[in-house]
Amino acid sequence: SGAGSLVLTGHHARHAVRSRPTRDETLSVWQGLLERLLPGWEVAIDDVVEALEESRVEVSWRQQQREEGVLGDEVTVRVSEPLSVTRNPFTLAPEQRSTPVLLAFASRSDVEVEVRWPAGWQLDVAPRLRDLANAVGSLDSSLEIDPEGRRLVARRTFTINQREVPVERYRDLFGLYREVLASDAESVILVQE
Description:
- The protein is 19% helix and 42% strand.
- It has helices spanning 10-16, 23-37, 170-184; strands at 2-9, 41-51, 56-65, 74-78, 101-102, 107-116, 121-125, 132-133, 137-146, 151-160, 164-165, 187-192.
- The protein has a four-stranded antiparallel beta sheet, covered by helices on one side. A three-stranded antiparallel beta sheet has the order 1-3-2. Strands 4-12-7 form a three-stranded antiparallel beta sheet, with no helix packed on it.
């Protein structure tokens, strides 16, 4: 079990906010979204603050692994949920691309996952760090492991620094997403001692 929070700012926040007449509808939309983004977990929304005039959205929730997913002596946590990149939106091979890519906006996604575990458990597998920087953007990751404190913090920043990607830079965009996919698939595995 655990808790999570999500903060969207700028264009990401404006894109996420929709006109909903009631608070219950707002909570229901975010509940449904988190349930889709966190398969295998039961999610309960604690709070949603949508401040369109500030271009900011804050969502906080509690989560617990569904009974059918509990292994008893092992726990797996993906280090980028619920904001994982799950597919490369650019499916055309770089050598086949003949037109530029126009994105809605340049963007930055920061994900921080803190995992704490009780006495009697230990870290079995830590996520592999992946970093890449090119003309289109960057992927930066870091990892703090404190075995005595039974704590791990994984951070990932994914930046696309331009809206229009010329044909000659498409290979960079394609490769950046490929690396982010691999990074976001990394997991922390805890086992009982």
